[in-house]
Specification:
26 strands; about 425 residues; Pectate Lyase C-like
Length: about 425
């Protein structure tokens, strides 16, 4: 009897494994209709592999669910030649999905958002367990509040090794509304030149999110905007008195932009190990030594509408991507006003113009890899027109020994 029970149990186990393997099938598609059919029929464990080529964007799918052991995977069949989804309001829009993984795809030319994942408007049932890996999202918008990746009501998610470039001039590379327990790591953000956009934004009740080891070059006006000004009807799951809480920003590199990190309506955040530097490891071609460090994290971090006790800033370094700090810093506003004025931007429009000119020089340097041009040479007009103090600061950083810098000094009249 005991042997019979063991045999029956073994047979059931084998059948179960065979059933799982049957469900975990790979489906290779090479046209849009086949992709639609495969996504509509996907079961836990299904892997949809998309052949290289161009496909029209504008795909929408809801109620797609995998399991923890068998997620649904949508990926490029050849990671070295990923499929391109071109145009559409957004390349993909997933609503009320779970245990979904997207890998090795290129999404470009969307007029709304590049990729949209949300809870379908049902705040009590968020999308969850989403993984985005090795995606390239480019040329979204180009104008207005248009995001590279839009996440609304998404929990337990990861965005890894993605590249987001040129989103809307009023949007974000990754915009999160009411998202929880997520990580963004190893990503590259390159914005259009705009002071109104952000690289990453967490708002609308976001909580327990980490942004680490990313490059913002530049990440828009604000590289990481912790918090925001969300309408009360969009908070997820409900309004709890903060835009963002328990956000960690660590080990990222910021190049250019108005402020690497900004805090707006935050209840608890940590920013650490975050250099703001030029793309050449702290050297800009003809500079003899690394760019100088700011004297204080307050040179590079703005803290509007946030209590100074709710944020921790450590190990942060600033580089010469901003203009020199004025001798007299404006005093912080009283704590009762809810604003800690720590940025030196109150120094007036002349200071602002000089600051933007130097920041633009570094941005242009990044867009010309392998060229002899350096930020020091690109900032030559500032040497000629800037204040004596500004010229002295630039001359300290730039040796001027290279051919390009010598030409720049002759053009600017400093040689």
């Amino acid at each position: 009897m005991e042997r019979l029970v063991c045999q029956l149990f073994g047979a059931m186990l084998v059948l179960g494994l065979l059933g799982c393997r049957a469900m975990a099938e790979d489906v290779t598609v090479s046209d849009l209709q086949a992709l639609r059919d495969a996504m509509a029929a996907a079961q836990p464990g299904t892997r949809i592999l998309i052949a290289p080529g161009d496909y029209p964007g504008g795909l929408y799918l809801s109620d797609l669910h995998g399991t923890e052991e068998q997620p649904v995977v949508i990926a490029g069949a050849d990671p070295d030649h990923p499929p391109r989804f071109v145009g559409g309001g957004q390349a993909f829009h997933f609503a009320e999905v779970s245990h979904l993984e997207l890998r090795d795809l290129v999404l470009t030319g969307g007029t709304g958002n590049g990729l949209n994942i949300d809870d379908g408007g049902t705040f009590d049932t968020p999308a969850h367990h989403i993984v985005l890996e090795r995606l390239t999202v480019t040329d979204v918008g180009p104008e207005g509040n248009r995001d590279g990746i839009k996440l609304s009501g998404v929990d337990d998610f990861a965005v890894r090794n993605c590249r987001i470039e040129r989103w809307g001039d009023g949007g974000s590379g990754i915009d999160m509304v009411g998202c929880h327990r997520g990580v963004i790591e190893g990503c590259v953000f390159r914005a259009r030149v705009s002071d109104r956009s952000e690289g990453v934004q967490a708002k609308g009740g976001c909580r327990d999110i980490t942004v680490r080891r990313c490059l913002f070059a530049p990440g828009g006006g604000r590289g990481v905007n912790i918090g925001g000004s969300t309408g009360l009807q969009f908070f997820r799951p409900k309004v709890e008195g903060f835009e963002a809480k328990d956000i960690t920003v660590e080990g990222n590199v910021f190049v250019g932009g108005f402020a690497p990190v900004a805090f707006v309506g935050v209840d608890g955040a940590t920013v650490r190990f975050t250099p703001s530097t030029c793309p050449a490891g702290g050297r800009c071609g003809s500079c003899r030594r690394p760019l100088s460090r700011a004297s204080s994290p307050r040179d590079t971090v703005s803290l509007p509408t946030t209590s100074s006790s709710s944020a921790r800033i450590s190990g942060m370094r600033g580089a010469a991507t901003s203009a020199p700090t004025p001798r007299r810093r404006p005093s912080p506003s009283p704590a009762t006003s809810g604003t800690a004025q720590t940025s030196p931007t109150a120094a007036g429009p002349r200071y602002q113009r000089r600051r933007r000119t130097v920041s633009t020089a570094w941005t242009r340097c990044l867009s010309m890899p392998g060229r002899a041009t350096s930020p020091c040479s690109l900032a030559a007009p500032l040497r000629a027109r800037g204040t004596p103090r500004c010229r002295r600061r630039l001359n300290r950083h730039c040796a001027g020994s290279g051919t390009t810098d010598s030409r720049s000094r002759r053009r600017s009249g400093t040689e």
